[in-house]
């Protein structure tokens, strides 16, 4: 199973772009990369998922290099409400890979 | 409203007293999973189920049991709780087709004295 490594914490200011990188050196061919956001006392919430290259939705972008050994979640122009813990997850439920290992998460603090 | 529900939300119990935390989803998801969350350790998977009557161990299954008799329900059973099972527990569900997106419940905060 691919193990993920992320920075424990990051600080930013409102209006800045934030990039959080996740390392997953042992990613399997069928694995997808998924990012979740978690606020205190709530369950994690899906942000974005990708397999390779770049994926963009209304809240974030996900950059995945060709070797897929890392990925970068990009949050454009963060606000105070983006203060949360962000988790990178590698796996593929669709392919029968039900055993999933979350990393320790990155605690993002956005300051005014 | 599509959701995952957990009960109870908070529970304080004593060592050795059997308990069950229920999890139910109304999205007809095949996949369901239980996680525990502890400070500094992130989310760790306890058990998961790919479909009815199909369950398997996650990363930290010791001291827990699960069952999947119906598609919508996935209860977590602690036969003899111990203080080291004091934690925040999350249930999640997902389709096994389409996106890998998991939908998480609100969490159950368990304290074992």
Record the SSE blueprint.
The complex is a heterodimer of chains A (112) and B (113).
Chain A: E1 9-13, E2 18-23, E3 32-38, E4 45-50, E5 53-56, E6 61-64, E7 70-75, E8 84-92, E9 97-102, E10 106-111
Parallel strand pairs in A: 1-10
Antiparallel strand pairs in A: 2-7, 3-4, 3-8, 5-6, 6-7, 8-9, 8-10
Chain B: E1 4-7, E2 10-13, E3 19-25, E4 31-38, E5 42-51, E6 54-57, E7 65-66, E8 76-78, E9 87-94, E10 103-104, E11 108-112
Parallel strand pairs in B: 2-11
Antiparallel strand pairs in B: 1-3, 3-8, 4-5, 4-9, 5-6, 7-8, 9-10, 9-11
Characterization of the model:
The complex is a heterodimer of chains A (about 110) and B (about 110). Chain A has strands at about 10-15, 20-25, 30-40, 45-50, 55, 60-65, 70-75, 85-90, 95-100, 105-110. With about 110 residues, chain A is an all-beta fold. The relative contact order of chain A is 0.34. In chain A, strands 1, 3, 4, 8, 9 and 10 form a six-stranded mixed sheet that branches. Chain A has a four-stranded antiparallel sheet with strand order 2-7-6-5, with no helix packed on it. In chain A, strand 8 and strand 9 (about 95-100) form a beta hairpin. Chain A is built from no helices and ten strands. Chain A is globular and about 40 Å long. Chain B is mainly beta. In chain B, about 0% of the residues lie in helices and about 50% in strands. Chain B contains no helices and eleven strands. Chain B has strands at about 5, 10-15, 20-25, 30-40, 40-50, 55, 65, 75-80, 85-95, 105, 110. In chain B, strands 2, 4, 5, 6, 9, 10 and 11 form a seven-stranded mixed sheet that branches. In chain B, a hairpin with an 8-residue loop joins strand 9 (about 85-95) and strand 10. The termini of chain B are far apart.
Brief summary of the model shown:
The complex is a heterodimer of chains A (112) and B (113). Chain A has 112 residues and is mainly β.
């Amino acid at each position: 199973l691919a193990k993920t490594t992320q920075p424990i914490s990051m600080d930013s200011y409102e209006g800045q772009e934030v990039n959080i990188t996740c390392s997953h050196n042992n990613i399997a061919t069928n694995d997808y990369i998924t990012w979740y956001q978690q606020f205190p006392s709530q369950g994690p919430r899906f942000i974005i998922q990708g397999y390779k290259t770049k994926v963009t939705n209304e809240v974030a972008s996900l950059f995945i290099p060709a070797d897929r050994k890392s990925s970068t979640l990009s949050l454009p122009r963060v606000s105070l409400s983006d203060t949360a813990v962000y988790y990178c997850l590698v796996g593929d439920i669709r392919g029968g890979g039900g055993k999933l290992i979350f990393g320790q998460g990155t605690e993002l603090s956005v300051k005014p | 409203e599509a959701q995952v529900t957990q009960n109870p939300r908070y529970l304080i119990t004593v060592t050795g007293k059997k308990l069950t935390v229920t999890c139910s989803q109304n999205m007809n998801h095949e996949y369901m999973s239980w996680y525990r969350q502890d400070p500094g350790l992130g989310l760790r998977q306890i058990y998961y189920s790919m479909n009815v009557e199909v369950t398997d161990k996650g990363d930290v299954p010791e001291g827990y049991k699960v069952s999947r008799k119906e598609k919508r329900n996935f209860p977590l059973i602690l036969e003899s709780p111990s203080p080291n099972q004091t934690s925040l527990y999350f249930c999640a569900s997902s389709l096994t087709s389409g996106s890998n997106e998991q939908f998480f419940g609100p969490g159950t905060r368990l304290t074992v004295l």
